[in-house]
UniProtKB/TrEMBL annotation:
Catalytic residues (positions): E376
Superkingdom classification of source: Bacteria
One GO molecular-function entry: beta-glucosidase activity
InterPro entries assigned: GH, GH_1_N_CS, Glyco_hydro_1, Glyco_hydro_1_AS
Keyword Isomerase: no
Entries under SUPFAM superfamilies matching the protein: (Trans)glycosidases
Pfam families documented for this protein: Glyco_hydro_1
Name the record gives this protein: 6-phospho-beta-glucosidase
GO BP annotations listed: carbohydrate catabolic process
Family statement drawn from the similarity comment of this UniProt entry: Belongs to the glycosyl hydrolase 1 family.
Length: 477
């Protein structure tokens, strides 16, 4: 049965600057982390294993983020396509190093600010609300090399300066903000979110959680500044959410799944939504010998800088048992867990669990009682251009339909849901593998893993399907 989504529901799509803009040295932009991450499946090894040096090696690797899909020069064409689908919202990020090329300057780069002015103006021309992530895996490389990323307390000041510059510049153009993309992902991939590579596995805990504390303080300062500068704006946190199932009803596995879920799904959200460290982290810090350095007033800042809503990405659930063997783990389970015998998986091994999205929405709303926003969800797949030029991506339509149906069920359950921006509404560079062949979009971009392609945009079958979904406010699926 079709579900009525609320009036004003923010239907749209989601992207990140580093995955679609390209123009990596234009407009005064400085280098950032994605600019030095290699393309291909080697990327996942680089971002999850110790020892990365943050250097470009053109002889050894390719760097697809450098050109990406050239949104920097083609944004008008792309936004017109989003408007044709009927987008109410477009989730995007601002590249920190376009605004402060090194990250520690005192004066922002006018060319970078002006570029986003043009993008926002183009969106408003079509009545599309920008939903802006302030930091989406895009830390300026200078802050990584000179300061060690978020381990250094001074980065809090740099981030506050950056966020405040955005609020002051775009206060009349942007009403929806998020501080850090998938902030909890740093527990698995610190390079992307925390701005440093683990050099020795035994050193993982202390620097990781010290960096988190700095991010929490920075997020709170940004929230406070946003509320002051743009009183009618909403600013949220953004997490990866993976509901965690116990493999069976063995109480040991149930307890293990609970502990894994609390650390990954709730630790960051609790600090940013409730404004305090959750009680369960006290034991975790003690058992891992973590001693957080705090400045006077930090805990008060966290309490004052609570977010207005929770945004999250949902791609898969996670199944856990205490004593798992290597053969139990699915190839796509980059966030841990074991194979769920009841679920099918995508071509990249990501398990497909639409009901898990309803579970997620209910769990998050029960816990926080603030509005929720699904800002990433989608299917990465190989798409084929047929002889007649069409792309028949029924598999993507089936995936999205089943997830949107479960969102409707969650709304019926009483969940307050602001909107839905599916991931990669136009094909872009994959964050985890640096591939173009892992496509999510309603719009096909003629760009390939070897760097070839014309960058021509084509509408897939899902383009027309999603247009109908939006036009009927989710009734026609």
């Amino acid at each position: 049965m079709a579900k009525r989504f609320p009036e004003g529901f923010l239907w749209g799509g989601a992207t990140a600057a580093n995955q679609l803009e390209g123009a990596y040295r234009e407009g005064g932009k400085g280098l950032n982390i994605p600019d030095v991450l290699p393309g291909g499946k080697v990327r996942l090894k680089v971002i999850t294993e110790p020892g990365f040096n943050f250097e470009i090696d053109n002889e050894k690797y390719t760097y697809p983020n450098h050109e990406a899909i050239d949104f920097y020069h083609r944004y008008k064409e792309d936004i017109a396509l989003f408007a044709e689908m009927g987008f109410k919202a477009f989730r995007m990020s601002i590249a920190w190093s376009r605004i402060f090329p090194n990250g520690d300057e005192t004066v922002p780069n006018e060319e970078g600010l002006a570029f986003y002015d043009r993008v926002f103006d183009e969106l408003h021309k079509y009545g599309i609300e920008p939903v802006v992530t302030i930091s989406h895996y895009e830390m300026p490389l200078h802050l990584v090399k000179e300061y060690g990323g978020w381990r250094d307390r001074r980065v809090v000041e740099f981030f506050e300066r950056y966020a405040t510059a955005l609020f002051n510049r775009y206060k009349d153009k942007v009403k929806y903000w998020m501080t850090f993309n998938e902030i909890n992902s740093g527990l698995h991939m610190p390079i992307m979110g925390l701005g440093f590579a683990i050099q020795e596995e035994r050193d993982r805990y202390q620097p990781t959680f010290q960096a988190y504390h700095h991010q929490f303080v920075a997020s709170a300062k940004a929230v406070i500044a946003c509320h002051k500068i743009i009183p009618d704006a909403k600013i949220g946190c953004m997490i990866v959410y993976t509901p965690t199932y116990a493999f069976d009803c063995n109480p040991e596995n149930v307890m293990y799944a609970l502990q894994e879920e609390r650390l990954f799904n709730y630790f960051c959200g609790d600090v940013q939504v409730r404004g305090a460290y959750p009680a369960f982290m006290k034991r975790y810090f003690k058992e891992h010998n973590i001693q957080l350095e705090m400045e006077p007033g930090d805990l008060e800042l966290l309490k004052e800088g609570k977010v207005d809503y929770v945004a999250f990405s949902y791609y898969m659930s996670r199944t856990e048992k205490k004593d798992k063997k290597p053969e139990d783990v699915g190839e796509g389970n980059i966030l841990g867990g074991i194979k769920n015998p009841f679920l099918k998986a995508s071509e990249w091994g990501w398990e497909i669990d639409p009901i898990g999205l309803r579970v997620s929405l209910n769990q998050l709303y029960d816990r926080y009682q603030v509005p929720l926003f699904v800002v990433e969800n989608g299917l990465g797949a190989y798409d084929k251009v047929e002889e007649d030029g069409s792309i028949q991506d029924d598999y993507r339509i089936d995936y999205l339909r089943s997830h949107i149906q479960e969102m409707g069920e969650a709304i019926e359950d009483g969940v307050e849901l602001m909107g839905y921006t599916s991931w990669g509404c136009i094909d872009l560079v994959s964050a985890s593998t640096g591939e173009m062949s892992k496509r999510y979009g309603y719009i096909y971009v003629d760009k390939h893993d070897d760097g070839s392609g014309t960058l021509e945009r084509k509408k897939k079958k899902s383009f027309y399907w999603y247009k109908d979904v939006i036009a009927t406010n989710g009734e026609k699926l």
